[in-house]
Amino acid sequence: MQQTLLLLPGDGIGPEVIAEARRVAEIVAPDLKVEDGLVGGASIDMHGDPLTEETLDRARRASAVLLGAVGGPKWVGAARDKRPEAGLLALRKGLDVFANLRPAYCFPALVEASSLKQSVVEGLDLMIVRELTGGVYFGQPRGIDETAGIRRGYDTAVYTHPEIERVAHVAFEIARGRQGRVCSVEKSNVMESGLFWRQEVTLAHAEMGAGVDLSHMYADACAMELVRAPKQFDVILADNLFGDILSDEAAMLTGSIGMLPSASLGTPGTPGLYEPVHGSAPDIAGQGIANPCAAILSLEMALRWSLGREKAADILFAAVGKALDQGARTRDLGGNLSTREMADAVIAAL
Ligand code: IPM
Ligand code: MG
User: Fold this and answer.
1) Among 33, 141, 142, 327, which is 20 to 30 Å from 86 by CA?
2) What's the pTM?
3) The pLDDT of residue 345
4) Which residues pair with 69 in a beta bridge?
């Protein structure tokens, strides 16, 4: 069956890094049908909507979706549903990709790029599994209004049993393919939804957690432990908001957020959404200096998790490591290669 990869470059450095991922895709998976679409600010400018029904339909019919980044100063003042980020959230929700996998892997060549001591990050290999379609990101009610003459802003942190159960199962499954340890994080000491999260993860573990060692940690303590002794973690399971924060923190352990890919998975057989963890980086957009590795490694995750091409994924992952070993570095890594030259180095290593 013909497999389709839908590219949604988005805004800022998105188009620059996705262009390089496309070149790599043409080499590692030449039979793949590659399509393009608009999302975020690029879609707002063209259609007045950060994600059109048509684009969402095409995403649903693709084998995998590779997205660059969304957002930028141009759209900051717009109403919430007309902001680029709303397109990304609608895409995640529309594809029902509830499990977001964010690996923090320290390439041997980059141990010195981290702001932490080499001994702390050397050999680091952890995976954050972030719940992606629920929690405070989507909970109702939410708003800014006025009651009894006092203005207020509020969101709702809410999780249901099925939402927690399904993402916990993914975390257990991933852990079984690694060191078999899951650390679930929440704030059960202050939040009802956090207490519920802990109870539900514990239940899910009793039912489906065979072979997995489950522990629990408060999210603030986890933030601290991530910089104190990150190698204690194998898989971290977190809700949408804590997972967002902890994955940015984990990214910096590896030297640069410009290196980190992510995979967002729904139920088996549905298309996964792949995106760099970094944002649209408007400050360096258009200069051709962004690190394309996160986008290239997001393609690697798509090959592995949606396209059933593990061999190609292994080869691509090794090629990125080899390019780094040979000294290839963009600016964020302390070098001076352009986006294109960095991709050239990966392609040469391939
Ligand atoms: C991320 C980003 C997004 C999020 C933004 C851009 C909506 O920070 O993917 O981590 O908060 O989920
Ligand atoms: Mg984030």
Assistant:
1) 33
2) 0.94
3) 98
4) 10
